[in-house]
Amino acid sequence: MSNFAVVQNGQIEMLLQSGNPFVLNGVQYPANWLNLSTPEEKAELGIVDVVYAPMPNDQYYWVSQDAPVYNSETNQVDITFTATPKDIVTLKANLVAQVNRTAYTILLPSDWMVVKAVETSTQIEPAWNTWRAEIRTQAQTGVTAINACTTVAELEALPAIAWAHDPNYVPPVENTETSIVTGK
Q: What pTM value is reported for the model?
């Protein structure tokens, strides 16, 4: 992505990227010039900032970058994007598959408990039964929410599922000790 542009008489002449050498008005500038030069030095050469609009989520949209436009009011070059929604039926199918795959992956390591309980006619520890049921419920709730969406924007706005932790989960302990090196 370009970080700067050369603008002459309101026209974009060239896009420049930090870290790359460039030639302007017959003068060769080294790769680090844009990073080391002052705003005044850039302004003397007609070099302005390039500002990118937020890029739409390409999981949900076909995204294309629009042509750069010089904005004389802000003295910068603006780059925006065009977002075309992807097919909602395909998106929903992919998201449902992803939720089901995630639930399967979460439950798989504890499936042996179910097999053992069936083979030995014993009970699974209640906490594990409750947790496994919660994962299945979370998956079904997620699938229902996905299927209820009628627009791509609604799909994109769905919150991520905060999957329940298994009964053996131990939350990380926050380190409150001060580091000798950093003093923090």
A: 0.74
